[in-house]
Design goal:
two-stranded antiparallel sheet, 2 strands
Length: 140
């Protein structure tokens, strides 16, 4: 007969919504994870890149199909996709924004959408810099 195999995995329980216990098997303990959440703007930038890749590789027919699959309006998909009009260095800065400890992000999506409408990357960089000055934000 075969002997049993023992597998050891670090397990961490957290409290989820409504006080229910949530098992986080194999994840780092809270002391090892940087506090805060990923900013909404960074998640939207990553989503824009992912959507563009899906359409480019023809896994999805078009942005209207994405809107239907995601149960959002075509206008909202356009707002997200327009983040790809940002200068590459601004896109990178958005993707690597510091985690948010409070309820509000340091940089608003609306302000960045305004920057994305500017076709000149030099002007975009100036606008991005002014957002940093207004928010006290110090990254790139």
């Amino acid at each position: 007969m075969n002997e049993g195999v023992t597998i050891e995995v670090p397990i961490h329980f957290t409290t989820g919504q409504c006080g229910q216990r949530v098992l986080n098997a194999g994840e780092a303990s809270p002391a090892m994870v940087e506090p805060g959440t990923i900013p909404r703007l960074a998640r939207l930038m990553a989503l824009a890149i992912h959507i563009e890749e899906l359409v480019r590789t023809r896994e999805v027919e078009d942005f209207a199909s994405i809107a239907g699959l995601g149960h959002v309006s075509r206008a909202r998909v356009s707002q997200i996709i327009n983040l790809l009009n940002l200068a590459p260095d601004i896109q990178e800065a958005v993707l690597f924004l510091s985690p948010v400890a409070g309820e509000r992000d340091a940089v608003s999506e609306r302000a960045v959408r305004t920057i994305a409408t500017e076709p000149d990357w030099g002007v975009q960089r100036e606008m991005w810099g002014s957002i940093h000055m207004q928010t006290g934000f110090t990254e790139v």
